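Limitations
The structure tokens in this dataset are predictions for the assembled complex, not deposited experimental models. Users should treat interface geometry with appropriate caution, especially where small molecules or nucleic acid strands are included. An illustrative entry is reproduced here so readers can see what is and is not provided.
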Amino acid sequence: MAALFSERMSLIVQKYGGTSVGDPSRIMNVAKRVIATQEAGNQVVVVVSAMSGVTDGLIKLAREVSSAPTEREMDVLLATGEQTTIALTAMAINALGKKAVSLTGAQAGIITDGVHTKAKIANITPKQIHGFLDEDCIVIVAGFQGQTMSGQITTLGRGGSDLTAIAIAAAVKADICQIYTDVEGVFTCDPRVVPHARKIAEISYDEMLEMASSGSKVMQSRSVEFAKKFKVPFEVRSSFSNNPGTIVKEETMSMENVVIRGVSIERNQAKVTITNVPDKPGIAAKIFNTIAGANIIIDMIVQNVSVAGTTDISFTLNKDELPKAKAALDSLVKEIGAQGVIAQDGIAKLSVVGIGMRSHSGVAAKLFDALSAGGINIQMISTSEIKIAVVIDEAKIADAAKLAHDAFGLGEKG
Amino acid sequence: MAALFSERMSLIVQKYGGTSVGDPSRIMNVAKRVIATQEAGNQVVVVVSAMSGVTDGLIKLAREVSSAPTEREMDVLLATGEQTTIALTAMAINALGKKAVSLTGAQAGIITDGVHTKAKIANITPKQIHGFLDEDCIVIVAGFQGQTMSGQITTLGRGGSDLTAIAIAAAVKADICQIYTDVEGVFTCDPRVVPHARKIAEISYDEMLEMASSGSKVMQSRSVEFAKKFKVPFEVRSSFSNNPGTIVKEETMSMENVVIRGVSIERNQAKVTITNVPDKPGIAAKIFNTIAGANIIIDMIVQNVSVAGTTDISFTLNKDELPKAKAALDSLVKEIGAQGVIAQDGIAKLSVVGIGMRSHSGVAAKLFDALSAGGINIQMISTSEIKIAVVIDEAKIADAAKLAHDAFGLGEKG
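Predicted assembly:
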């Protein structure tokens, strides 16, 4: 992106995660990278996470004084993690002879709602950021944190530092937001599973969202959603190399030429089937209210047409949640007049994602053919406009991923 | 003090130092003590330091990214130490079933000048403190830190948390400010040196200041000066016992009845004498400008009347500063036409302090008699209105302290 604006100075937001700033020597590396970006003629705002391990250490401390620490105080405590990193990063840049200043979330003008430990960003007033940029400073902002209108410290929850970076990029109208992490970008499939998986050069927000919710753990969905909402292009790339990463941006015409962008897999899944559920209004609501009431997060839900007035309702979830789900449902089954509950783990989910499938037919058939040729039985199917997900035996997930990857030609040079 | 206002609720500011909040179990003890204070019918504001060792750990981290960390960033970094303690302390109180909220220095309304790492408090707007007190909360404030008018994080330097406590006590018009520490109070002499030294029940600001500057390390002078200026009575007491400590307050009539409040000693001193200094205007200024220019902190300065147009000028300093002082003076001696520099360590300072000496004569004579009876030679003498200080051989300082302590009857029940 920056190259498009070569005649003026570009404004770049860079975000470095906990591994990238994991110790003082890594912070020095980040400092050098940031300085190189500035010396290439850019203004730079840097968002950093807590050094890896620091947040866990703080949580452990909190547990030593309270079995259920107050969420307001948890935010005050955890915010120190990123505050430590911003100071050290600014010092490191200063030590290398460049101007840098650190800003906490509050100082950077990040205003959130008052929901402690998982606050939402309401507004950003980047007055101090602009002020320091105008003084040729590199500005280092603490990720993951903000403050309420009344001045209480808040944190943004999981994936909060990515969100900070994207929200600041939107607020300062950055030319690009670079999310530095410990992977090289978004791949057509997990390279540990499919060795010839390729790094994806460009991907649309919607595809990235489907990948994220299907097991590709590069970024939390909320950050991608925020970027989509505010049209912030961003790049996921590695802080340990100089390779270009994956650019995530608005859909372009040419993107539809690729039918399938990537294959995601998610292991450690389980499925629960409630058999012979009476086909009456309100029954499904009862089941899923019970599940939600027990704080169990579920993924796919499948219900087929009813035969003889009853139907089977199935859903998938992380296998760790299975005992909780069974306990919650056992009494409900009698109450709603269903036959029973079948719980099974040892399954995994495979998803193929691509906006191209909107304009290409036969995608599902091609996937099912490929799996069938490998002797892999499909237990459940669920689809969205740009995704087809199947549940299969966990032991076969790697084979299935390779077959799907090959079937859609993802390993070939794009 | 609180007892004087038994018909209304008292407002108490308590400060706990790094040792008192040194680990989670000690923080729980502080929480219990604070709750007991509230349950006795008081409103409570608590100022805490960083857990002992935390600040040193942060400084070590900073040195790993920079040999000379930027002072602005040092403040951002060090401020996390107290922020960690306030969150943990509030959580601990919450865990014991009471309402508590933490506030950083900035949130507590502490506005400082912009001199990073040693900022001065300019103003306190305790709006949030009052707001939370009105909601029956115990308010936990981070010591040692504040922010500038433009929102930059600052720290107050050595003794900063004591200063925070006293400044907040002044701002909220507290009935008393309790400085909890790891000693029982201010003693007539260091009990490790004079075993029958007694805890002083009440002492005036001026006496406390002279004791502090004479080697009694209980508190930094600047906090005492601040308390004196704003007439804030405070109590120095132990967080490890329930014993009353020492109340520091404005001078009262009865205080003058005690001639000597206490004896302070300071070891590791050295003295420098410049011999045969021409007795001309501007020479002393030249000497001490040279010393100050080399960033050497000196203590006593003694100059006697000149004989035959020259005089000897002596001063004392910490013995660690001696090589630096010699180097700074060696070339100056020729320049000003003096004879030479004699530097000597192995000396110590003994001071007797008391506002009573203003109205009692013979104090100096009594001190000199006592030392003489013990065969102790006095090398230098310096006096203020309420202090007599002498420099002696360091090997004899414990004997001298016992002799002085006995001579003024400090060991007897007061």
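Some entries come with short summary sentences. For this one: The first helix of chain B runs from residue 24 to 39.
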